[in-house]
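Example (one chain per record):
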Amino acid sequence: MVHLGNSWDELLCDEFKKEYYLRLREFLKREYADPAFPVYPPMHDIFNALRLTDYHAVKAVIIGQDPYHGEGQAHGLSFSVKDGVPPPPSLVNIFKEYSADLGLPVPQTGDLTPWAKNGVLMLNAVLTVRGGMAASHRGKGWEIFTDRVIELLNEREQPIVFLLWGGFAKKKAELITNPAHHILTAAHPSPLSAYNGFFGCRHFSKASALVKGGIDWRL
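Predicted structure:
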């Protein structure tokens, strides 16, 4: 049984018992045990987004697609890489907008753990991937699980800001029906689309202004 150490445990306990999740669990057991390829992130990091950001502490949600598939990059937070790993292109662009919006220096680390600890749930729709094979774990059940996470957040009365970057993330807006919450949309920060509306979106300052107490984005 997954143990997250916070209120997500009770909220998701029934989800972990459902047939789709048990099938996903068996699939993951085989994948992580197969010596033919690595699987990312490391097994103990899969649920870091939920472990680091308690349900009641969530102020903002940044939705990604699936983990980075390069060695040593993914550690369970969307768009984040471990300290010491060069930021991938999308994260480089996120930092450019962050700096331009907030007037803060470009971070020297790609590890976004401080954001997670400050109430930013950094949730990928799919939580695992084969090394070097983008999207290889899509359609295995993770999407059902992470949609449930979004639905549970939607039920909360305290306002949350959902930052939906790119077409994939924008589709999650249909799960966010509670008028208490806020949705900010922009192009994906990838080099292919960042100039089509991600740069200049000012989502960091806007999100901070929309939630009680603001958000400490410093890294």
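Caption: The helical segments are 8-12, 19-33, 48-52, 89-102, 113-117, 142-154, 166-170, 203-210.
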